[in-house]
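Colleagues,

For the teaching module next term, I've prepared a clean inverse folding example: a structure given as tokens, and then the sequence designed for it. I'd like students to try predicting residues themselves before seeing the answer, so please don't circulate the second half yet.
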């Protein structure tokens, strides 16, 4: 494993608690890794990458600088991330795309069937409907915004600087 310290830009590279970092992983300068993250063998993170709690990056995945990976997301092996990966989803293929919600991971972490259903409904609007992203986000906000998980999704989308996969 290689780990680079922070630069003058942020002053730190931070790794949370209970993080599993396997063989050959590279964490570049100014990265922020949340708690309970798993970085499988040969993952390489460019500078300023942010990975939120409980995310898993499959072996030999690469994240371009300034990418963000949302909480509870699971990224398939050999993925090339050049845009942000929203929370609670499975992402994979080439190019990387939405593959569904991380239902098994969410169940293991105590999410109820209703919470998973609501998250799935939000992503159905965002990835599986004919709505453009602005209209899909408006529909999610209108129909599902009372949920903290839905608000996390909306915040993630609105704060994305690299765009969403």
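(Answer key — instructors only)
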């Amino acid at each position: 494993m290689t780990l680079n310290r922070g630069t003058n830009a942020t002053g730190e590279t931070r790794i949370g608690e209970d993080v599993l970092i396997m063989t050959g992983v590279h964490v570049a300068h100014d990265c922020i890794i949340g708690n309970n993250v798993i970085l499988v063998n040969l993952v390489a993170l460019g500078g300023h990458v942010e990975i939120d709690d409980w995310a898993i990056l499959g072996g030999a995945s690469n994240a371009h600088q300034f990418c963000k990976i949302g909480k509870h997301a699971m990224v398939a092996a050999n993925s090339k991330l050049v845009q942000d990966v929203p929370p609670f989803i499975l992402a994979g293929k080439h190019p990387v795309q939405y593959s569904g919600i991380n239902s098994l991971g969410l169940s293991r972490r105590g999410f109820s069937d209703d919470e998973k259903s609501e998250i799935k409904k939000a992503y159905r609007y965002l990835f599986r409907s004919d709505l453009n992203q602005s209209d899909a986000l408006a529909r999610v906000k209108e129909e599902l915004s009372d949920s903290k998980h839905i608000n996390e999704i909306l915040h993630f989308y609105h704060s994305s600087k690299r765009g969403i996969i």
